[in-house]
Amino acid sequence: GNSVTQMEGPVTLSEEAFLTINCTYTATGYPSLFWYVQYPGEGLQLLLKATKADDKGSNKGFEATYRKETTSFHLEKGSVQVSDSAVYFCALTQDTGGFKTIFGAGTRLFVKA
Amino acid sequence: GAGVSQSPRYKVAKRGQDVALRCDPISGHVSLFWYQQALGQGPEFLTYFQNEAQLDKSGLPSDRFFAERPEGSVSTLKIQRTQQEDSAVYLCASSPRQGSGRAFFGQGTRLTVV
Fold first, then answer.
1. In which element (H, E) is residue B111 found?
2. Per-residue confidence at A2, pLDDT binned at 50, 70, 90?
3. Residues 6+ apart with CB under 8 A from B22
4. Which of B16, B63, B73, B86 has its CA 20 to 30 A from that of B47?
């Protein structure tokens, strides 16, 4: 079945450091890929998405590229801020009759000033 | 409303008690999903509605869990005879049409069974 695997956290970085959170997926066909973010005390929010191979999703300085050859969708940001501290979830959605979203376990990011 | 609304935000139930969790999706959204998020984990799919039809309930963990969406808008997730392992955040999400690929999430209901 479909699945998403992302790097375990927590990830602790200093402000302005480079961020990478790895994500790989298993799916048949061509799923859509997402990164969601959950700030402390808030609900899940869509951060970015990509719907086909080689697409790059971007938002708020974050980027991820849909790599079908490596079944990956790694999240990157060139310079993190304290306000980026949150839990990040990689996810996929595919038409298996219901378009349910499959989530990774989440990666907690702490950014220190 | 502007977003997906869930109520209550917090619920404490005694073991064995029945609970009902409500979800108001974004107006006009066809698809509605329920997820269960245990502490420190990603959300796990429970069930999916397209309008009033429950098309997938493969993620419901037991027959104590029941969901409905009788008029194709508001949905209720009911858990009978709650157990401690039911303690989790229950998330509702909606999307504008089948296959839109993106879901809008509510803030969730945190259920604690004591």
1. strand B109-113
2. confident
3. B6, B7, B8, B74, B75, B76
4. B16
b/e sequence B10-21, b meaning 16+ C-beta within 10 Å: ebebeeeeebeb
Q: What residues of chain A lie within 8 A of the CB of B98, using their CB?
A: 99
Supply the pLDDT for residue A98. Answer: 62
pLDDT tens track for B19-37: 999 999 999 999 999 999 9
Tell me the residue ranges of DSSP E strands in A22-112: 23-26, 32-38, 44-50, 56-59, 62-65, 75-77, 86-93, 101-103, 107-112
Q: How many whole angstroms separate alpha carbon B46 and alpha carbon B108?
A: 14
> Are B42 and A106 in contact (CB < 8 Å)?
yes
Interface contact A103, partner B, CB < 8 A? yes
Residues A21, A108: Cα–Cα separation, whole Å:
10
Residue of A nearest to B43 (CA): A103
Q: Is B92 part of the contact surface with chain A (CB cutoff 8 Å)?
A: no
**Which contacts of A57-63 are long-range, i.e. CB under 8 A and separated by 24 or more positions?**
A57/A33, A62/A35
User: What is the helix (H) or strand (E) element at residue B29, kind and residue range?
Assistant: none
Contact state of B107 with A104 under an 8 Å Cβ cutoff: no
